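RETRY 2/3 - previous attempt timed out on the joint model. Re-submitting the same 312-residue input unchanged.
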Amino acid sequence: MPRVVVDVMPKPEILDPQGKAVLGALPRLGFSGVTDVRQGKRFELEFEGELTDEVLAEVRQMADTLLSNPVIEDFTVSVETPVAAVEAVE
Amino acid sequence: MKVGVVTFPGSLDDVDAQRAVRIGGHEAVALWHGDHDLRGVDAVVLPGGFSYGDYLRCGAISRFSPVMAEVVEAAGRGMPVLGICNGFQILCESHLLPGALIRNDHRKFVCRDQRLRIENVATPWTSSYEQGAEVTIVLKNGEGGFVADAETLDLLEGEGRVVARYLDVNPNGSARDIAGITNERGNVVGLMPHPEHSVEDLTGSGTDGLGFFTSLAAAVLA
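RETRY 2/3 succeeded.
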């Protein structure tokens, strides 16, 4: 089954307090070298049948209206082939 | 006047808002998120709380509830709409107001008696205040940081659409200390502090919030 992934991230100019909290926690746990953390959301949408351009256009519409708030967030849409499907082909 | 107060799953302050509406001299009408009509009300309050558990983003799911289609339509006709806290978030998600509300910059939930300056008394929700009035109203939020791009902020300031501004302390990192704004027409107001909790001396910090509910009569009779 084809899967479409929508990644939503806070826009670069928008403060990301959650990312800041994670950034602050890393050195306390002994992890060094991380200079910035931004926290976003990942949506995995499963579809039946073929992923046509129409379906992908619709996913972009979903991302624009519900999954993200364009005032504060950017999104990317990508198609992912599930590992199980790859193994089945092999 | 008949003032509708919408209850969403997860609304907290709907009963307090109804009470404030009555103390303000109006009839409170309970509206439900699944309603397809506004039951003949003259104005609508979207109360505070955590509608739909704040899932996805605060107000993001509520925006698509049946009653909001009616509220958006009525707001377009000029009906007074007040969104308090979560209600403000819903108004932004519905694009009835510009900008968005993000997590407090200090990452903590804040609950305090907040001093504010009322900067726009031309809205139906603020007409009983004096221009520049300094008031104290309860504030409680986790995601109350108002953000918008610089152009939008300049537009809001230039058109006098900042309804209330934080004094003394900026409690949540809001851009330009903005606590509340209105739309171009002036009938839709979003406010992060909770005037419905500041309407009786018995509870809270005083009665400075009452003006948001008494303003309506003056606005409609005018």
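The two ends of chain A are 16 Å apart (CA to CA). Closing ticket.
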